[in-house]
Design a protein that fits this description.
By secondary structure, this protein is an alpha/beta fold. The protein is 30% helix and 24% strand. The protein has 17 helices and 27 strands.
Length: 578
């Protein structure tokens, strides 16, 4: 009988992929610099008709790194980048790593309260933000973030040619925000920074075990958690992707020998998201080119860029692929040069995959599976893949499907259970959260396994199929939304006795959900409704909207006489989902 210890998935790998690969002996910073300096004249990225090569990227990122060092940042200090997918994000991210600092992406969608929490939790010393986000979000809570010392403020147009900057502002197509002094903070404009500090890269030495990225994920405790990813972990995960995606790469060779600079990536994943930052780090370390997508909702522009620059790789959340498929311009693009269309972060239904492949090419859609805490599986790129599967666990990675009740008993191949994973891909744990780390990472027979909270089954060929989730997590537009976080916000409303957040299928976005709040009111509140609860429902959604990111706001609010409970007194969400 086949067992998980046999690693049946390795038999289904593409022929060039080994069951075990040599672990990288270099840090991600060293991996990155090989790509940065491979070909200085190679285009690093395209942005709104502008083009930057690697020489320019190195010049600007060296200036940013020098700024950090001269402002007192040392190895291990955290720099937050609070931007959409614009050149300044790439420049700040590369400069942060060149300075030996830790990069944390900060979502522009966060409310002021959520922004303050993340910056305080990671004790960020520097934040790079847009002028409009400075005005709308940061000004309100800046006094509550004592560790933040320097704020770099930029505008979307700062990396555009002067003519486009002038025209954009004249026509009011570029949003701007007011910048004012903040007590205890030094504010520096991005343009001032790059003209003041020299392109003198600091000399820093980082180790494999130093923290490279601090990525925040939602949590059932009601607050987001910072997953720690070391240089070893990031270098390993990206070396797996490099090997997996390119059959010309020698798995016995050092990363320096990888073939670089031959691909163009177009992705709508935001850089603050795991998938977005992973792709940014991969593309840059490979010396490849990327098409920056500041607003993935603007599918007209995405289609125009893909038609013009002919990407060899694209990567998007399934809902964005569905939006692209609905745009007539998508059908006019020549995808003959495309190698693969990567999909992750949410389920992708079979019909939509088939439709996408009718445009991009049969067999080119590659589904992958991972979480902020570590990459897990990928579908083969060149060989047999199974539509609907999230693929095969990667080299050097151990996976088990275990009983969801005790978390230890292995389920037979083919039967569902919780996915647990062990390997150099896995996070060290959560920053400042020992309890959550112990819950996430547990030792089994001497190995430390990451408990994903996802229920899946594995077939005899080693392909994994996601079945359900054990966590109270919803997928809304490709984002993870954790129910307890919203519930705690709603419990701040005095009329609420009990509350439960569940997801209901989104009829317009297959594989995604709509946030639904089921609420049991206090008796006095029930009496005051007089048969009409619309005003109270609006009060509830307004309160959530004020305190949380927009996609977390319930689209459906339902009042019930009594919330169903299990035998032990817990809210029975299975009943509510029916």
């Amino acid at each position: 009988m086949v067992s998980y210890s046999d690693k049946p998935w390795t038999n289904s790998y593409d022929k060039h992929v080994p069951a075990e690969m040599a672990l990288p002996k270099i840090t991600y910073l060293e991996f990155l610099e090989q790509g940065l300096y491979a070909d200085q004249e190679k285009t690093a990225f395209y942005f709104m008709g502008s083009e930057y090569n690697y020489r320019q990227l190195n010049d600007l990122s060296d200036r940013f790194a020098r700024f950090l060092v001269e402002k007192g940042c040392v190895k291990g200090d955290v720099v937050g980048v609070h931007l959409p997918n614009i050149p300044q994000f790439v420049i700040a991210a590369v400069g942060t790593l060149k300075a030996g600092c830790v990069l944390t992406g900060v979502s522009p969608l966060l409310t002021p309260k959520e922004l303050a929490f993340q910056l305080n939790d990671c004790q960020a010393k520097v934040l790079v933000t847009l002028d409009i986000l400075f005005q709308k979000n940061l000004m309100e809570v800046a006094g509550q973030i004592p560790n933040l010392k320097q704020i770099v403020v930029t505008n979307v147009a700062d990396c555009l040619p002067v003519s486009k900057q002038f025209l954009g502002k004249l026509l009011k197509k570029i949003p701007t925000g007011k910048i004012v002094p903040l007590k205890g903070k030094e504010i520096i404009l991005y343009k001032q920074l790059i003209s003041t500090f020299p392109a003198d890269k600091p000399k820093v030495v980082v180790s494999l075990e130093d923290t490279c990225l601090l990525l925040y994920t939602g949590g059932t405790t009601g607050q987001s958690k910072g997953a720690i990813l070391t240089h070893r972990s990031v270098a390993f995960q990206l070396s797996v992707v490099t090997l997996w995606m390119d059959k010309d790469v020698d798995h016995n060779a050092e990363l320096a020998d990888a073939i670089r600079g031959k691909d163009i990536m177009c992705s709508g994943y935001p850089f603050f998201h795991l998938a977005g930052i992973a792709l940014l780090l991969y593309v840059t370390a490979m010396g490849n080119t990327q098409i920056l997508v500041p607003d993935p909702r603007n599918t007209d522009q995405m289609c125009k860029d893909m038609k013009k620059y002919k990407p060899t790789q694209i990567a998007n959340v399934p809902t964005l692929y569905q939006l692209l498929l609905a745009n007539p311009l998508f059908a006019t693009i020549d995808f003959s040069s495309l190698k693969f269309a990567l999909s992750a972060a949410a389920p992708f239904n079979v019909d939509s995959i088939n439709k996408l492949e009718s445009y991009v090419g049969k067999g080119k859609v590659v589904e992958v599976y991972g979480m902020t805490e570590g990459m897990i599986s990928l579908n083969p790129v060149f060989g047999k893949k199974k539509i609907g599967s999230v693929g095969l666990p990667g080299p050097n990675i151990k996976v088990k499907i275990v009983d969801t009740e005790n978390g230890i008993k292995e389920m037979p191949i083919g039967e569902p259970g919780e996915v647990i994973v062990c390997g150099p891909n896995v996070t060290k744990g959560y920053l400042n959260n020992t309890e959550a780390t112990k819950e996430l990472i547990r030792e089994i027979d001497g190995d430390k396994y990451l408990y994903t909270g996802d229920v899946a089954r594995m077939d005899e060929d080693g392909f994994m199929f996601i079945v359900d989730r054990t966590k109270d997590m919803l997928l809304v537009g490709g984002y993870n939304v954790y129910s307890k976080q919203i519930e705690e916000c709603i419990y701040e409303i005095p009329e609420v006795e009990f509350c439960a957040i569940v997801g209901v299928p989104n009829p317009e976005q297959a594989g995604n959900e709509i946030v639904k709040a089921v609420i049991q009111l206090k008796d006095v509140a029930k009496k005051g409704l007089n048969g009409n609860g619309d005003a109270l429902k609006e009060k509830i959604t307004a309160h959530v909207r004020k305190n949380m990111t927009a996609y977390k706001v319930p689209k459906i609010v339902e009042f019930v006489d009594a919330i169903p409970l299990t035998a032990v007194g817990k809210v029975d969400k299975k009943v509510l989902r029916k």
